[in-house]
Amino acid sequence: MSAQPNPWYERDERFIQAHHQPACLIDLALTRGIDSHRLLRGTGLFYQDILTGQQRICTEQFLRLIDNAQQLQGSDDCSFLFGQQLLPGHYGHASHALRHAQNLSQALERLVLLRRRVSPLLTPRVRLDDKFVYLHWFDSCGAGAREVFLVEAAMTAVTAMCRWLSGEPLPWQYQLRHTQPGYIEQYWVHLGEDVRFSCPQNLMRLPREYLVKSWPHASVTVGQVAEQASLHELAAANELAPSILDALFDHIHDHISQSRIRQPLGLERLAEAHGMSAATLKRKLKRHDTQFQQQLDQVRTYIALDLYLSKGFSSDEVAAYLNFNDRANFRRSFKRWTGHLPSDLIGRLA
């Protein structure tokens, strides 16, 4: 009997092709005079192995490469210049599928669908309401302190790709979780001036009328064939499964959104649903630089902001939806999640 594919992948799985995004970062460092041996120190990689086009690495190796690149370059534009090279990229069928997207809607669908090829360390999630399309970015493998670098690169990558494929700059708005850094001018140059810091989640927002505007030079047939070929490659390599953090996000989200009785979801129930002990799940989460409460609060924040900003719920309605019986308790929890009371934050983000 053949082994069943894992329901998710973890940060020690070697699924990232070293000659794809890691090579982009390596080349950026090499153009700045960084010695390849110093750049690859501690990654378990050798430059000649990358040149074979066969080397696969895990999240931990990629993150160590990012650490080295940042430390050795010592410049504020590293993440942004890295992001400029990422999309559509040179990742075979996945890149062809992005390159020939007919419009932004299809590009975002393919970005999410083929994320293990085109966004291996961050998970893009798309949300719509009557006015805007939202592109959220979530840590998929335990990036820790490197999340800022990865988010800067991802937002730059999507911004640059959309500008190239649409033939015009799109009026994205950017919301970032971290505080404003000292190199704000890099955001203005690579993203634009509509950037907000100290926000609850990392996301890009755009008026939804841009979703269906046709993009020139796209080939519908080429794009469809490339998408199917990329999915076939992922399936053949058992790489259609989400990361452990993505799988838990989806489970928590579904539990909150679909449960009529809205029973509280604890670590034990979540672990049991995935066939493991609470201690095992706790250990896995720690290895991914997180914990259950952090994951639960992240999903609650995602849902709460959608209810407030997109559906117009009141605080009482949001509290009830999230299974809070006491409004004061919900307000305290919301402030712990976001750093702000609902009344203060919603006006700032609207």
Describe the structure.
The chain has 350 residues and is α+β, with helices and mostly antiparallel strands. Helices cover 53% and strands 8% of the residues. It is built from 18 helices and seven strands. It has helices at 21-31, 36-39, 47-51, 59-73, 78-84, 93-99, 104-113, 115-118, 147-166, 184-190, 220-236, 244-258, 267-273, 278-287, 292-310, 315-321, 327-338, 342-349; strands at 16-17, 56-57, 122-128, 132-139, 173-175, 195-196, 203-207. A five-stranded mixed β-sheet has the order 3-4-7-5-6. β3 (122-128) and β4 form a beta hairpin. α13 packs across α14 (278-287). The longest helix is centred in the middle third of the chain and has 20 residues, at 147-166. The protein is globular, with a radius of gyration of 21 Å. The protein starts with 15 loop residues before the first strand and ends with a helix. The model has no long low-confidence stretch (mean pLDDT 94).
**Termini, distance in Å?**
54 Å
- What's the overall geometry? globular
Show unreliable segments: none
The radius of gyration computed from the alpha-carbon positions, rounded to a whole number of angstroms, is 21 Å
Main beta sheet: strand number and arrangement? 5 strands, mixed
Gist of the model:
The chain is an alpha+beta fold and 350 residues long. The chain contains 18 helices and seven strands.
